[in-house]
Amino acid sequence: MPLVVLLAIAAMxxxxxxxxxxxLARPNRDQRQIAANLRRGLSNTVTDPVSxxxxxxxxxxxxxxxxxxxxxxxxxxxxxLLARAxxxxxxxxxxxxxxxVILPLVGGALSLLNVAVNPGTLAVxxxxxxxxxxxxVPDLLLHSRGQERSQKIALELPDTLDQMTIAVEAGxxxxxxxxxxxxxxxxxxxxxxxxxxxxxxVGQSRRQAYEALAARVGVPDLRKFVRAIIQADLYxxxxxxxxxxxxxxxxxxxxxxxxxxxxxIPVKVIFPLMLCILPVLFIxxxxxxxxxxxxxxx
Length: 298
What we know:
mainly alpha
């Protein structure tokens, strides 16, 4: 393949991430002005709450370069996905940003090698698709991890509400019941309850901590429960009654979801049955008859 074509492909592979950056990047003058106002009279401050991560503590290193190359909107979206995934210790945001820069470069280099070995339009299109997919691999992994974690939280929620109901009826307050459920429980929901109590202890209001819990987890049932608790606290409704009602409703929803999945099994079995099992049965049953008919005709 001519050198000009290889250079054009390399330029296209490099320009795609830059094009996405130029489209997604937006001027953030208000944030810079707020950060400048907060820095007045202070020696060491943080300009962006998203940038407070283990990788952002040191000013140098490739994660800092990757952070400067990534638009602010992408960083915040990645931070939301990371919060929903439970912030795994092995996946700090700096490492993810570095991966979003390194993976497209590796994919583009491998695509160039593929095009050099097998020139053609299909190889070029495949290389472009591989480069774009490599750029979004961290987002896809975090989204998948967040969905799995949300499903676990939705399954654990009815049992946790039952524990909190028993604790409140035994005489504990709602915060103490939540703290006990988080301390005695295991799993992502217990971790989120512990973090919510820590937010309240450091000075956040209960409503802000509960709303942050619902936004961080992203489970509709938990969001509904948080709204019911906030309204009960606002209007003076008995928390024990709210917990009992919510626990019964969550158990009913869990049973309905299980029944729905059970009813979907026959529909999902039809396609493997038609594609894999029925053709084999037809061959076994009708094969000898067809062979006999062909032998008789010949």
